[in-house]
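G., the chain you wanted modeled:
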Amino acid sequence: MIQKLMIVALSLVQLGCSKHSANANPTPTPTPTPPPASGTEQYGTPYSGVPSAQDATIYQVNIRAFSSEHNLNGVKNRLDSIKALGVNVIYLMPVYPIGAVRSVNSPYCVKDYKSVNPEFGTLADLRNLVDAAHSKGMAVMMDWVANHTSWDNSWISNRSWYVQDASGNIINPPNTGWQDVAQLNYQQADMRKEMIADMKYWVYTANIDGYRCDAADFVPADFWKQAIDTLRTITTHKLLLLAEGTRSDHFAAGFDLAYGMAFYYNLVNTVYARNGSATTIDNINTTEYQAALGRGQVARYISNHDVDNSDGTPLDLLGGKAGSIAAFITAAYMKGTPMIYNGQEVGCPVKLTFFNNSTAIDWTINPDITAMYKRIIAYRNNTEAIRKGTLVSYSSSDVCAFTKESGGRKVLVLVNLRNATVDYTVPAALINSNWKNAFDGNGATVTIADHVSLAPYGFKVLETL
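Predicted structure as C-alpha cells:
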C-alpha cells in the first residue's frame, strides 16, 4: 500500500498538482445523439480503420516542436514518416486557441473549445491533416481539456460554471500551481451538457476518431461516464478514448485506455535510477490492470510532453541510446499499448517545450535508433502473441524476461535493464527450449541453455520454431 501511494504521489507530481476530489452528482443518463444539427454536419466519411486498444500504437505530436513550420501543415507533411514507424493512431496535443489573460502560453489553457488556434492553422488545415492520416491508415485523436478553461474563455460569463471561493471569486485548480486557468464546476449540469456537445462537435466537424482526455483524474467519474456514453451513441464512428490518469474508475466510465504512470515512474526512478529489481514491473502489471475489466489497456510510455519537458529525455533518464531502446521494448512488448512521444524515435537529445516553438526536432539524427523503432513496432504489429497473448514472467533482478503466447505461437523476450553484462539464470521451464530469432529472419535454431549472457542493455526476442 505504501508503495502504491508513493506511485500515485509521483503521478500527481507529473500532472503538476495534488489529488483532490469532487462531490459526485446523481449519475445522469446519456442523451441519445440525433443526426448532426445544422452547423455540425458530418464532414467527410467516418474512418473505419480505427484499431482496438490492444492493436494500437499511439504517436503523440507536440505541434510546436514537430516541424519547422510549427503548425498542422507541418504535421501533415511528415505523415509518411510517422506511418513508416508502424504507427496507427496519432494523438495531437491541443489545437484550440490559447487564453491571453494570466497566460503562460500553454496549449492546455483553452480559450475556445470549438476553434482552431490560428498559430496552428485553420479548420481546413485540421481537416486536411485528418483526411491525409486516414488515407494512410492512421486514426487521429485530439487532446481534450475538461478540468479547466482559460480566464478569457467565453464560458467565464457563466460564473456558476466555475468553482468559486467563499467570497465568490472563481479559483484556479486547487493545489496545482496552474494560475493561468480557471476551475470548472462539475456540479453545474448545463456546463456538463455544453462540454459534451463540444466534444461531439469535433467528431462531426473534423471527422476525428477519439480523445486523449487531459488530467482525467481531476474530473468526476460520473461526468466521464455521461460524456462517454453519449459519445458512444454516435454509431457512425468507432472512437478511441484515452484517460490521462490512474484512477481506478476510468475503465468503468468507458475509457479504452488509461495512462501507465506507475510503469513509467517505476522504470525511471526504481529500476534505472536506483538499480531496483526488474521484478517490480510484475507488481505494476497487476496494479495497473486490476480495474481494466478485461478489455481496457494501459498506455505504456518512456516519454511524453510532460515528463520530457520537466524531467528529461529518454536518453537522459534511461541510459542513453541502448538503455532507452531496452526500456521501449519492455514498454511495447510486456503488457500494454505503446505510446511514443515525437522525437523519441530519433533519440532527440533536447527537451521539447510545448509553451512556445523555440525548439524543434532534428529528424536527421540517429537513423540507427529510428531503424530499431521500426523493427520493434513492426514485430509487435505482426505478432498477435505480443499484442494479445498470455503473459508469463520469468524476470530476475536485472533482466525483464517473459513469454507471450497466443494461438499456438509463443514469444520469449529477454531484456537486460543494466548498463553491464548480465548472466541470466534461465528458469527450469525454459532450459533446453528451442527458438528462432524473431528479428533476423534467418530461421536458425536458438537453444536456450541454463544461462544466457546479455550485453549491457542487450535484449533477445525469440519465437517458437
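The domain at 393-464 is CATH 2.60.40.1180 (Immunoglobulin-like).

Shout if anything looks off.
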